[in-house]
Amino acid sequence: MGEEQDEQRMKKIAASSYDYENDSRWADYWSNIFIPPHMASRSDVVDHFKRKFYQRYIDPDLVVGPMPSSGSSQPARPPPAPSSTTGQSQTRGSGSSTRTSGTSPAAAPAAGSSSLRWDRQTVQFSMNAWVFIVAVLAILPLTPRNLSNRATRLSFMGTLCSSMYSLYSLYGKPRAWNLQGVQVWFRSIYGTKDFIYVLYCITFVTSHLQLKFALIPVLCRALEHVAKFLRRNFSRATLYRKYFEEPCLWVESNTTTLSILTSHAEIGMGFLMIISLLSQNRNFLQTIMYWQLLKLMYHAPVTAGYHQKMVSQVKLRSRIGNYMGIINLSH
Questions:
Q1: Percent share of the chain, pLDDT over 70
Q2: What's the CA gap between 150 and 204, in Å, rounded?
Q3: For residue 172, is it left (φ>0), alpha (ψ between -120 and 50) or beta?
Q4: Three-class secondary structure assignment of 231-281
Q5: How much is the pTM?
Q6: Average pLDDT of the segment spanning 224-235
Q7: Which of the two residues, 302 and 330, has the higher pLDDT score?
Q8: pLDDT tier at 115 (50, 70, 90 boundaries)?
């Protein structure tokens, strides 16, 4: 019983961290839900339908509870009985003290949790901003070769640390350090975008190849995180409105374009690594491991849509090329 509860808890965490906005099926699913407008604006109702969507399209084993009620279940408080002025003042004083003592302990954890979330967001912003600056320095053509190679490696290491920190803050650590507990925890992070970036960065941190093309997914990820943080926390700042508002707005409105660019770069890196087998820095094991990572990206829900579309385009173009070659040979 306890193991099933742990597994369901991990599944709920995976469902809450799933990237619904980049999944085209979610928009179609949500447009077909007919509920009153006052309920559609409630976050708990939206979260309920997101879990239903996750259960239907991604993980059928997820257990989804009933939808939250539309109204409050607390009954109306009856009017106070008439009493003397002294009794009324004592009742009001005791009631106010009860309310004060009742709300103070509840407010303290809320403030603590908000400050904890703020710290996590700040740490992620700091790491991703640093990665973005170092990656831009690495791809500049005027940067010396030694400095560029070092900046490339530091970019992958920064993204690796950022992804591992994100996994730890969202999923924590295994509740039991045994085989079954680690398996339950690993199933919850397997296929997430952060886990994919961990494997991606490990592949290139340990590589002797210095391919600047591999920095495109890292740059897109860092740019998206930095833009979201600036828009959420500095939207009223004068400096932000003057210099960063339009770029951040463009990034948030073109996340699909960045995801398509990332998938193109990741698949292109697979072919570049095959070509690199003809060079002196060839590494057969690393190339095989990267193509296994591409296989994971092809099947993982967070990246499957973009990679499957890209692979289908490659297959279509190869068929058209073969067909055109047959036509030319026939003439």
A1: 76
A2: 12
A3: left
A4: HHHCCCCHHHHHHHHHHHHHHHHCHHHHHHHHHHHHHHHHHHHHHHHHCCC
A5: 0.61
A6: 88
A7: 302
A8: very low
Per the listing, tokens 């339009």 go with 246
Mean of the pLDDT values across residues 151-155? 92
Q: How far is CA 306 from CA 261, 267, 311, 316, in A?
A: 9, 11, 9, 15
Q: Is the Cβ–Cβ distance between 35 and 25 less than 8 Å?
A: no
Per DSSP, helices labelled H in 140-214 are: 145-171, 179-189, 193-205
Using CA atoms, how far apart are residues 268 and 143, in angstroms rounded to an integer? 24
CA dist., res. 310 & res. 325, Å (int):
22
Of residues 184, 217, 192, 187, the one with CA closest to residue 301? 192
CA distance readout (Å), 196 to 70, 228, 293, 301: 39, 21, 8, 11
In the predicted model, what is the mean pLDDT of the chain?
77
Do the Cβ atoms of 190 and 303 come closer than 8 Å?
Answer: no
State the DSSP H helix or E strand holding residue 212, giving kind and residue range, or none if neither.
none
Cα Rg of the chain (Å, integer):
26
H helices then E strands: how many in the chain? Answer: 14, 0
SS3 206: coil
d(CA 260, CA 246) in angstroms, rounded, equals 21
The rounded distance, in Å, linking the Cα atoms of 247 and 116 is 28
